[in-house]
Design goal:
mainly alpha; about 85% helix; about 0% strand
Length: about 210
């Protein structure tokens, strides 16, 4: 392995560095973007129960805000639950934008890695072919050993760049889709809590509670 890295030339260093960063981001995002951590189930039902029993106070809202990203969004709306519907929605949307920024953290870096590593590999290919043609100019084509170094460098850097870029792109697309799914879920839950606080869904939530 070390011999292959050495044969690939100095461009293997940034490619390997990109692979380490991409691996760290993928692991961190898999850990952070678990649905139970982002949008726990039955959170709206729990809030409705607090509201129904008149236990929805500052302590519950503060605990809700620190429990999960969805809890933070809902807590922002509950702070303004005594204000008109539009003000409550605006506070939810403002906090929601902050939460979405947290959910997409590091994904731009992962997308950048997916874009630049093939270019690094291509640059290695160009440098390797330049070495090949330089060797041909000075020594001719009679000595294949002289040409092998440049060709090897060209092929290794290209392969290494693609080996990093392909999985990085796959995981980038996967996590973008995961974030979109979680954001949609949080929007649905936030609209439910707005309706609950303004009396539009009390009957439906009471029916859900009875069914449980």
């Amino acid at each position: 392995m070390f011999e292959m890295v050495q044969a690939g030339g100095w461009l293997m260093v940034p490619i390997i560095l990109c692979s380490v960063i991409a691996l760290a981001i993928v692991g961190e995002r898999f850990w952070s973007l678990q649905q139970q951590k982002i949008a726990p189930k039955n959170l709206v039902t729990q809030i409705w129960q607090w509201h129904k029993s008149k236990a929805l106070d500052k302590e519950h809202i503060r605990a809700l805000s620190t429990s999960s990203p969805l809890g933070k969004v809902l807590a922002a709306g509950l702070v303004n639950r005594h204000h008109p519907r539009e003000i409550m929605k605006e506070s939810i949307e403002e906090t929601g934008r902050q939460v979405v920024a947290d959910l997409t953290r590091y994904l731009n870096t992962l997308g950048t890695i997916a874009s630049i590593t093939p270019l690094l590999g291509l640059l290695g290919t160009v440098i390797g072919m330049i070495k090949v043609f330089a060797a041909i100019t000075t020594q001719g084509v009679g000595n294949p050993t002289v040409l092998a170094g440049g060709i090897s460098e060209a092929l290794i850097t290209t392969a290494a760049g693609l080996l990093v870029a392909i999985p990085s792109l796959i995981f980038y697309r996967y996590f973008r889709g995961k974030v979109d799914e979680l954001v949609l879920k949080m929007e649905e839950e936030a609209m439910k809590i707005v309706d609950v606080m303004h009396g539009d869904r009390e009957k439906s939530l009471s029916a859900q509670e009875s069914a449980v």
